[in-house]
Amino acid sequence: MWKEIRDREVGKVQSNYFVNRIASDRISKIELSNNKDIVSPHKGAVNSLQVDLTEGRYLLSGASDASVAVYDVQRATDYEAGGLIAKHKSIFVVDKQHEHGHKYAITSAIWYPIDTGLFITGSYDHHINVWDTNTTQVIMNFKMPGKVYRTAMSTSATSHMLIAAGTEDVQVRLCDITSGAFVHTLSGHRDGVMTVEWSTSSEWVLVTGGCDGAIRFWDIRRAGCFLLLDQSQSQLGRRPPILKRSMATKDSTSKPYTKQRAAQRKLANGNGTKQSPIGKVPAKGSARQRLHPGMLSSHDRATAHYGAVTGLKITEDGMYLLSAGSDSRLRLWDVESGCNTLVNFETVRLQTSKPIQLATTQDSALAFVPCMRTVKAFDMWTGNTSVTFRGHYDCVNCCCFSLQDQELYTGGNDRQILVWSPSKLIPDEMNERPAEDQDNWSD
């Protein structure tokens, strides 16, 4: 460790490499924390967890007793065992006794992406509430057509403030905070939408998973989905590097290809059939090959899972998508091609009656998946189980990974919120040197 610090100081090692190396070492040593405890005020199952994206300091939790709570995970409210165990009690709790609180279970609780002054909750009472954190008052309310399963906001959006909502209704609705109205509905699923996830590489792309087993990609600027994942379409191996792909594209656009395209244009302008623009129905011939895929969503029956899609998580670079289903399968998808990468994840048992919240590390090397009473950390590219976390007494519903502290937070039906943090390399008592060994610089 000290050698790496010295190499960084003299410029032999780049600072980003050093940071990534330290973060990877910390992640590899994650275990149930014995010096940090979240005191949960919930009297029901914890269904949702999220650490704010601005400071990485405040943890938001939502539970089935219609309560939502906020904790400061960096500053403890109390200490026990002679100061060795830090207790983090909730800063505030909003429950069903609140004037505008939810009446039934809260299934989703998320922070406003660029400010901790707002947070959003979705509930089985058919409502989505936007809360002012400072006053704990509802400043906006959206009435949904059914139970709210999941809500999401884009972390990269600069042009809109939309809340994507998946409910037991077949349509995905986009709620606008600025106007307080529904701005768009996305139609295509044949059953309720259990999970929604915004792309991390584009503020306009939304991914949804339904109870019909379908995973659909939407560009919210146009009608219809533009990609429907099919588990039967697959590709082996990871995507080639960008340099290789650019070279392959350059080779494919060589002179013979140009001549071929010129011949095709000549045929189209001559005695051949006139080509129709994409999205318009031709007068004759097969319309299916010429229509935009989104216009065929009601007819396409491809599925990504043999059951409901219960969880989605896009990698930080936006190139891959991890999905979980009620068929107890995990699948990794290449977003660009829409193919199943055939990563053989080890057999697991997943919940089937409710959505689960997945988490990944910053480099997307590990994926944290709730597997009944345990949480398993899978190697994203091999599918092997790296670590199995055991600590909950009932099924785990949600995982949240803190990129700043390399800590994992999990919540389950046992009403507990557990903290999994890197083990300390040097015990605290070893840091305290005897008085005779300390330097007295005043002499």
TrEMBL record:
One of its GO terms (cellular component) is nucleotide-excision repair complex. WD repeats lie at residues 39-81, 99-141, 186-221, 302-343, 389-421. Keywords: DNA damage, DNA repair, Repeat, WD repeat. InterPro entries: Rad28/ERCC8/Ckn1/ATCSA-1 (IPR042238), WD40/YVTN_repeat-like_dom_sf (IPR015943), WD40_PAC1 (IPR020472), WD40_repeat_CS (IPR019775), WD40_repeat_dom_sf (IPR036322), WD40_rpt (IPR001680). GO terms for biological process: proteasome-mediated ubiquitin-dependent protein catabolic process; protein polyubiquitination; transcription-coupled nucleotide-excision repair. It comes from the Eukaryota. SUPFAM superfamilies: WD40 repeat-like (SSF50978). PROSITE patterns: WD_REPEATS_1, WD_REPEATS_2, WD_REPEATS_REGION. Residues 239-288 are annotated as: Disordered. It holds the Pfam family WD40. This is DNA excision repair protein ERCC-8. It comes from Quillaja saponaria (Soap bark tree). The lineage of its organism: Eukaryota, Viridiplantae, Streptophyta, Embryophyta, Tracheophyta.
